[in-house]
Write a structure and sequence with these properties.
The structure holds 2 protein chains of 2 kinds.
Chain A (H helix, E strand, L loop, with lengths): L2 H16 L18 E10 L7 E7 L8 E10 L2 E6 L6 E7 L7 E10 L2 E2 L14 H6 L11 H11 L5 H15 L1 E2 L11 H7 L3 E2 L1 H14 L4 E8 L21 E9 L3 E5 L1 H10 L10 H9 L3 E2 L3 E5 L21 E4 L2 E2 L5 H4 L1 E8 L3
Parallel strand pairs in A: 8-9
Antiparallel strand pairs in A: 1-6, 1-17, 2-5, 2-15, 3-6, 4-5, 7-13, 10-11, 10-14, 11-12, 15-16
Helix pairs in contact in A: 1-3, 1-4, 3-5, 3-6, 4-6, 4-7, 7-8
Chain B lengths: L10 E3 L9 E3 L5 E3 L7 E7 L4 H17 L3 E8 L3 H10 L6 E4 L3 H5 L7 E5 L5 E5 L10 H5 L11 E2 L6
Parallel strand pairs in B: 4-5, 5-6
Antiparallel strand pairs in B: 1-8, 1-9, 2-3, 4-7, 7-8
The chains are: A alpha+beta, B alpha+beta.
Chain lengths: ~375, ~170
């Protein structure tokens, strides 16, 4: 344990104890379930410089949760051979397309439709004990992954942060506050980050993006024995609450991938959380580099423990995914289109050269 | 070049025993074995193109190898990085040493690499002698200090400091 981390943990715990007395933030950020929105997301992918046979894997929305997202069928056109594939462990769906060397240029267009709505749960109300997670699901969502171990330094830090806390809500909220207080969004990190949380804790470099910061949150919560999971997806619309940092800027959402996190609290079910977006508001919300006590930050911090806005779609919850038909490595997560040509994995974060473009359109209510 | 961080760490003496040998594909698809470095001081350098300090450290490693005049070999291992991303990076930042692709982290895991960058300094029999688990100011070190430093110093020192720490 680094001395600096220990000290920071202490500060965060002290701060968390003050939270219940915080005044309500001035900024209105109040996601409220009740209005479903329909979106169509279209991905056009082309292997720009094919060298022999090529393959691509496009993540498809494959989360269906009756209280906040409905994923409909996806449709596609391609000059390759397309197969709908499903990860056996997490149910993550993807379109797998294979092209022979003669099919040039390799192109696929995929269109998916989803419906989503705001999420919010009132954690100040008593929970319903009947809402619980089956033992197998509890185990699945408290187990470590390749980059999210729940032992070693992650367990040590989780224990330190949650020391003295007894209920699930207290423990999870304390970890959420610790992540908000101690991490930062690093604009230089490519894509959404790697999510190697043990390395983050070991080096003390707690900068990153959503795949780092929310993975750290999930790992710390899992290490406390409480189910948690990353939810990998993409923003599809601007924020109706006026947060520029928490929505799209145009119909082109090629680089709008974003992962969130859920925790399972007995009595409440799967609860929406997003500490990484609190740090995004700190860094990016105009006029940028906001103070931690700025009203916008305070609003995001308060709201994103228990709620999020329905301007984002979830692809999947998956980790350590083997791409069917590939001899290449597993993916830590599947959030970007993937491709290979000549058996070399393409750079999924280099959309312009890969190349692919993703567009979103809101549809009229059905 | 931007200055390397003044707080760069020292090379710490390695006492955990031998590391497993490996053979990995390089960026042209040919396999390169650790064994090829036998009879030289070898720097096994784990990095990733997304890792910012790594991007400054790789050219410094190249300069170190050049100054060592063949006495120090570098094997750079890209950990879980996309092939195309690695190729593009070294097109823009060419180096003279081989770049190996540890696509599934198998070697990084076998060597217990917990952070990137991490560099091991191996002696001529390929036994690890030093390790640094962050970026290191290779421009500040005399290559002879690496090749001649494998016995614990008369003062009992267990690390090699970079000049910026002095």
């Amino acid at each position: 344990m680094h001395r600096r981390e220990f000290l920071k943990a202490g500060v965060a715990l002290a701060f968390a104890a003050e939270l219940p007395t915080l005044a309500r933030a001035d900024t209105n950020f109040d996601p409220t379930p009740g209005t479903w929105r329909n979106f169509q997301v279209a991905t056009r992918l082309e292997i720009a410089q094919p060298t022999g046979v090529s393959q691509a894997w496009i993540p498809l929305p494959s989360v269906n949760q009756k209280d906040w997202i409905k994923s409909s069928d996806s449709q596609w056109t391609t000059n390759g051979k397309a197969t709908l594939a499903r990860d056996p462990h997490y149910g993550a769906e993807m379109l797998h397309v294979a092209w022979t060397a003669s099919e040039q240029p390799p192109v696929v267009e995929v269109t998916s439709r989803i419906a989503t709505q705001d999420r919010a749960v009132d954690l100040t109300r008593p929970g319903k004990p009947a809402i619980d997670l089956a033992a197998a699901d509890r185990k699945f969502n408290t187990t470590g992954t390749e980059l999210i171990p729940v032992d070693g330094i992650v367990k040590q830090m989780s224990d330190k942060i949650t020391a003295g806390k007894t209920t699930e809500i207290e423990k999870v909220h304390t970890i959420y506050e610790w992540v908000v207080e101690n991490t930062f969004r690093d604009a230089k990190v490519r894509g959404c980050g790697i999510g190697d949380i043990a390395s983050m804790l070991k080096t003390g470099n707690l900068g990153g993006k959503c795949a780092d910061l929310n993975a750290l949150f999930v790992g710390l919560v899992r290490a406390a024995g409480i189910p948690a999971r990353d939810v990998y997806g993409i923003r599809v619309a601007p924020s109706k609450f006026g947060f520029k940092a928490l929505g799209t800027g145009s119909e082109v959402i090629t680089k709008a991938q974003h992962c969130r996190a859920e925790v399972f609290l007995t009595g409440y079910g799967w609860v929406a959380t997003d500490p990484a977006d609190v740090r995004k508001v700190v860094l990016e919300e105009p006029p940028t580099n906001l103070a931690i006590d700025d009203p916008k930050v305070a609003a995001a911090r308060k709201t994103l423990f228990g709620a999020w806005e329905g301007n984002w779609l979830a692809y999947n919850f998956a980790h350590d995914i083997a791409l069917p038909g590939s001899t290449g490595p597993k993916l830590a997560f599947l959030m970007y289109p993937q491709g290979e040509t000549g058996n070399a994995r393409l750079d999924c974060l280099d959309a312009d050269n890969f190349k692919y473009i993703i567009k979103s359109k809101e549809l009229a209510a059905a | 070049m931007s200055p390397l961080r003044a707080a760069a760490a020292d090379l710490q003496r390695w006492s955990a025993g031998a590391q497993p040998t490996f053979s990995l594909p390089n960026t042209t698809g040919a396999n390169v074995a650790l064994e090829a470095g036998r009879d030289h001081v070898v720097l096994v350098h784990f990095f990733a193109t997304w890792c910012e300090p790594c991007r400054e450290e790789l050219p410094a490693l190249n300069r170190l190898a050049a100054r060592a005049g063949g006495n120090v070999k570098v094997l750079a291992i890209a950990v879980a990085d996309a092939d195309q991303r690695v190729q593009r990076f070294f097109e823009a930042t060419p180096v003279d040493f081989p770049i190996l692709l540890d696509r599934d982290r198998a070697v990084a895991k076998a060597w217990n690499v917990a952070t990137l960058p991490t560099t091991f300094v191996l002696d001529a029999s390929l036994h690890p002698r030093f390790v640094v688990e962050t970026d290191f100011a290779w421009d500040t070190i005399d290559p002879g200090k690496l090749t001649g430093s494998f016995a614990v110093g008369a003062d009992g020192s267990t690390s090699i400091k970079n000049a910026s720490n002095r």
